[in-house]
Amino acid sequence: MRKLTKLGAVAALTVALSSGAALSQEMDGITIGFLPGVVDPFYQVMELGVNAAAAELGITVITQIPPTWGVEVQTPILDAMVARGDIDYLVIAPTDKDQMVGPLQNALEAGIKIITVDTFLGDGDYADGPVTFPLSYIGSDNVEGGRISARGLAKAIGGEGKVYINSTNPNVSSVEGRAIGFNEVMDNEYPDIEVIGLDFNLDDMNTAVQQTAATLERVPDLAGVFGTNVFSAQGAGTAVVNAGLGGAVQVVAYDATKFAIEQLREGVVSLVLAQKPFDMGYLAVSFAAADAAGVTSLPVRVETGFAIIDIDNVDDPEVARFIYQVPE
Ligand code: T6T
Known about the structure:
Bound molecules: alpha-D-tagatopyranose
Largest sheet: 6 strands, parallel
Structural class: alpha/beta
Shape: elongated
Number of strands: 12
Order of helices and strands: HHEHEHEHEEHEHEHEHEHEHEEH
Radius of gyration: 20 Å
Number of domains: 2
CATH architecture of the largest domain: 3-Layer(aba) Sandwich
Oligomer: single chain
CATH topology of the largest domain: Rossmann fold
CATH superfamily of the largest domain: Response regulator
Strand order of the largest sheet: 2-1-3-4-5-11
Distance between the termini: 42 Å
């Protein structure tokens, strides 16, 4: 398998992009479609990365951001992008690891090369897995992110008690991986912590608030909540504060929004996991450019890493730069 290390990816890119002038001449005429999962701060930062690389390389980008999460919203947008007839590469975060395979295969048959960012298709192994047609998956190691979140929450609650997961949708590689990693660590490393359940909020913050509030009522000795993405964590944190339990019930927030950082400063959130969406977008466009220039050794998987933010390092500029800065 063409294995992914951050170093390997950078090396590939360095080779691919070593002759900037020549490359941008070759890039004339290339059009990339960018189709992320939903309007949220994570993908807005990713868009900044997409646009930065595209500006440097002289590439045209057509961006369409679905207003809500789901295959039924993303598929018609994808089909419309394919129907335009001018898109060479598609940078997409598939909203379902199985259901988006067919629509993306149609795009491929129409001559569009696929790069997945943030979420993957199949099992994410584009060398040997059930789905191999995308050029690359560029995103977080979300199982590892779930493990990190579990250890952070376990520490915050003193290694014992009941915890709950609020997540978005089933069959989404990113949040599914986070819950898998979280449960794995709680099962194997913390015998005195019980994961009492997981709710799906369909990426709606109000639903996340209601579900977490109901759980707080049902389980009065709840010790902690893992919010697996922007809206899950915001909803969880809001419900905990509304119940007057800020600090008593600890929250771990995946995704470094300003809201999560405020709640970190207030003692409601104990750990914030920042992904690197700018890097995902930037690398994806760079990979498309490299492929168009004839590079054949692009890694099929690139893990972009995390910044793990807590109250002790949140003001360190080297860490704070990974807080999602969205244009107003
Ligand atoms: O957590 C990110 C992303 O990684 C996930 O796939 C979907 O939710 C976010 O966009 C945050 O809202």
